[in-house]
Amino acid sequence: MTKPKVWISRPFFPDIVDRLREHFDVSAEPEERAFSAAELAERLADSDAAIVGLADKIDGKVLEAAPKLRFVANLGVGYNNLDIDALTQAGVGASNTPDVLNETVADYAWALMLAAARRVGEAERWLRDGQWHGSRFEGWLGADVHGKTIGILGMGRIGQAIARRAAGFRARVIYHNRSRLDAALERECAATYVDKASLLAQSDHLILVLPYTPANHHAIGEAELKAMKPTAVLVNIARGGIVDDAALARALATGTIASAGVDVFEGEPSVHPDLLKIENIVLSPHIASASRDTRRDMAALAVDNVLAAFGHGPHAGRPPTIINPGVLADA
Ligand code: 8YV
């Protein structure tokens, strides 16, 4: 009997991919790169399942060329690269990788916040540049994080993990979210709900953890940046497009806010050229979930979902993190 075919859009942990081989004919791309819609259509034309990432945009047009496709597993908690309505309409299940990355992404949000507040990147560049000839008592002054007010915009599971870390810094946490957490969870996170205007005005450091949706496009633009404290640090570990990068570059250059730590960009992997010219920003190439353990956990979860969708493994018939479970009910 021929095995169903699974296409993997990038190479990852061979021992985890091997778990598919008993049940699937696996074809994994040898290198990670962006695929055009035509290339995706061509690769999915004969595939029953796919494991894809943020750069792979699966929309209705691509699906038209993929008549056999039954399941798409996304390597990431955010899935704005998938058109879920189109997938559901085509009867294709889709999964993401929630929870396994919460703590690692929360660690990284704090890393960026601390690095931006204490000017770690700038100071390192200066030292490497051979400019350290003596110390200046008033040199390299940054902002404290301990004891300050940390704002979190988007209070899902990653936001909550970020909030829990604040206790060790004796920092106060305020948050804004589409819906307020229940009282027990608010207590556990020691977080106070405020409206967006108060969040912008009161946060010493503001961390963005929103999913990317059309409604969240440029949730932080010129007006929002102007509403923040001039001493504030802005951290984006969510998605490019949530911040207006051109407005952020202007705000940093003119002192509207003090600094920023940014892991995600509009149009990444291109980065707005004005951001690259600015010293008071820490930039990283979308690595918030990139710890050795977590990337393995994300890969394993994607594989578990594909196995389960085809009736294999411990979750047979019930992909553990399916986004559109109705598809299976209808099958
Ligand atoms: C990426 C992420 O998926 O989980 C998300 O939503 O943005 C990241 O974890 C990761 O970079 C894999 O490409």
Give a structural overview.
The structure is a single chain. It contains 14 helices and twelve strands. It has helices at residues 14-21, 37-44, 60-64, 84-89, 102-118, 120-128, 157-164, 183-189, 196-202, 222-226, 245-254, 273-276, 292-309, 326-330, and strands at 5-8, 25-28, 49-52, 71-74, 93-95, 149-153, 172-176, 191-193, 205-208, 233-236, 259-262, 281-283. Strand 9 (205-208), helix 10 and strand 10 form a beta-alpha-beta unit. Helix 1 (14-21) runs parallel beside helix 13 (292-309) and helix 5 crosses helix 7. The chain is globular, with a radius of gyration of 22 Å. 40% of the residues are buried.
- Name the ligand types: 2-keto-D-gluconic acid
Strand content: 5-15%
Q: Given the C-alpha coordinates, what overall shape results?
A: globular
CATH homologous superfamily label of the largest domain:
NAD(P)-binding Rossmann-like Domain
Mean pLDDT over the full residue set: 97
The arrangement of helices and strands along the chain is EHEHEHEHEHHEHEHEHEHEHEHEHH
Give the low-confidence spans. Answer: none
What level of helicity do the residues show?
25-40%
Going across the major beta sheet, what is the strand order? 8-7-6-9-10-11-12
Number of helices: 14
